[in-house]
Amino acid sequence: MTRKIALITGASRGLGKSTALHLAAQGIDIIGTYYSKAEEAQAVVAQIEQLGGRAAMLQLDVSKSATFDGFVGEVGRTLKEVFAQQQFDFLINNAGIGTHASFVETTEEQFDQMVAIHLKGPFFLTQKLLARIVDGGRIINISSGLARFSLPGYAAYASMKGAVEVLTRYQAKELGARGISVNTLAPGAIETDFGGGAVRDNAGINAFVASNTALGRVGLPDDIGGAISTLLADGSKWINGQRIEASGGMFV
């Protein structure tokens, strides 16, 4: 039986790494991308291989859409040489960075960086990868709880995530003819190095999040990796065009 393949952007660390390992544990092979730390990326490949799966890591800067044609060619070569296939099954648009500045203090440079990474990148990368996604495949776009609730300092970042949620519905509508479903997964605050590791390392922020979360704690990467793998499981095929928040009930 042919194994399914997931392409995950930003798979060398944080939520992307957790997602890759959860999917690998379910028998799904991985093509991941990393921005700069090749050694971290190869360590994830080794972990996946220990689980009995296959994986490859490709360098990608999602903010540079001019490189996407070359990247898509590299994906094609990797599919053929590593997996003996021509297409993959799942695309998870996960790669991203945070920026923290009040609305008044946000610069055009910060705003443009958020557009390039969180909106333009997933928009055109998905567009260019469509021919490599199987009919009946699935796409997950990563958003944020900050697109639902508002905390000072995230106006630019959260605006991009709000746009991604609208994009998801349009993709679901337009790609339905190919049987491709598209959903948004919106994490709450998670203990990672995202945003300088503030949620993980700042005790005050950690306690604030925990006290405003129904389940009484801050999220962990495995909470999100598990949620994404569940959303890609066979029993979730009929979920389409939806925003699903995995936040433990933050600010409910």
Automatic annotation (TrEMBL):
Organism: Pseudomonas proteolytica
Family: Belongs to the short-chain dehydrogenases/reductases (SDR) family.
Record-level Gene Ontology MF annotations: oxidoreductase activity
Chain segments annotated as transmembrane: none
Protein name as it appears in the record: SDR family oxidoreductase
Keywords annotated in UniProt: NADP, Oxidoreductase
This protein's record includes keyword Zinc-finger: no
InterPro entries listed in its UniProt record: NAD(P)-bd_dom_sf, SDR_fam
Pfam families, sorted: adh_short_C2
KW Metal-binding (keyword) present: no
